[in-house]
Each structure stands twice: as structure tokens, then as C-alpha cells.
Amino acid sequence: MHVRTIMCVSALLLGACASSQAGHSTASRSQGAKKNENVITAAEISASHEHDAYDLIKSVRPNMLVVHGNTSLEHNDPSMPGIHGTPTPGTVPGPDSDHPQGNNAIIVFLNGQRLGGVSLLRRMSTTDIREIRFLTPAQAQYQYGQGYPQGVILITTGAS
Questions:
Q1: How far apart are CA 130 and CA 79, in angstroms?
Q2: Which residues 6+ apart lie within 8 Å of 104 measured at CB?
């Protein structure tokens, strides 16, 4: 009788572990379906009512436009953001701003070609855009070399 009790308890524990693992894999799959915060897809673009790329990004993925901190090694005092043209951390550049100090700007590429700062996004109609992708500074350095401490916004059109 004692052996039977142990076998029943073991079976119950094994069943509980199996159902726990099944729930975990379901949760993992649903997390995998989560949208990529660094990509705006064609479906999201067509569902948007924005007319230019800047407004689209600002409404769908505003974090793509956020300046991520003081990147100067010479002036790395966090109490002094914005010195020597370095954007103030946590700010969103305005549509007419390119952060003129070049190396501290988010740079826009169109179909693989470097265009310039974020102000150019105002001139890009969303009807022509197939995808918008943000590259972190590390990803941008890997793909394009040094000089992108705020990252890169890649615009891909249907024409590419």
C-alpha cells in the first residue's frame, strides 16, 4: 500500500511538471510573436494615418527618435548634457533638427544610402515606404563602421 501511495504521488508530480512545461513553452511562443521594437513593418505603415516618415515613427515607435545619452568621451559628465552639440539624453529631436554636430546624430539611410539627419524624414511620404528599421549604435557600427553613436534609421522603399 505504501508503494502505491508513492507511485500515485510521483505520477501527480510528474503530471504537474509536464503541464508546467507546456504552459512555459506556450508563453515563450506568445512572447516570440511580440512586435520588434526596432522595426516598423509594411502592415503597420499601411495601418497608420501619418503622411510622412517622421510623424509615422513618432506615433508608432517614438523610441527610435530618442537620443540615448552623452556619447563624448572627452565630456562624459552626466550633469552637463547637451555640451558641445551633444543632444540632451532622453530628448526627441524635432522634425527640423539634424543635431548638427554630425557624430552625435541619428542618421537616416534610404535603401542603403546615407542621407543625413532626421529632418529628412519629413520629406518622405509613407506611401513609398516598405519598412523602417532602427539600428543600435553597435549594429550601425558593424554594418557601416564608426560614427553612429546614436544609431541609424534605415528606410526601405518599394523601389529598392
A1: 40
A2: 67, 71, 72, 85, 86, 87, 149, 150
Cell numbers linked to 22: 507546456
CA diameter of the chain: 82
CA–CA separation, 103 and 41 (whole Å): 28
Distance between CA atoms of residues 99 and 87, nearest Å: 7
Using the predicted structure, report yes or no on whether residue 51 has a pLDDT greater than 90.
yes
CB atoms within 10 A of CB 39: 14
> In Å, what is the CA distance from 11 to each residue of 3, 7, 23, 160?
12, 6, 18, 59
Span 3-47, pLDDT tens digits: 555 554 455 444 544 444 444 444 444 455 577 999 999 999 999
CA 4 to chain CA centroid, nearest Å: 56
Per DSSP, the residues of 79-91 read: TSTTGGGPPPTT-
Contact 42, 130 (CB under 8 A): yes
Give the Cα separation of 89 and 66 in Å (integer).
8
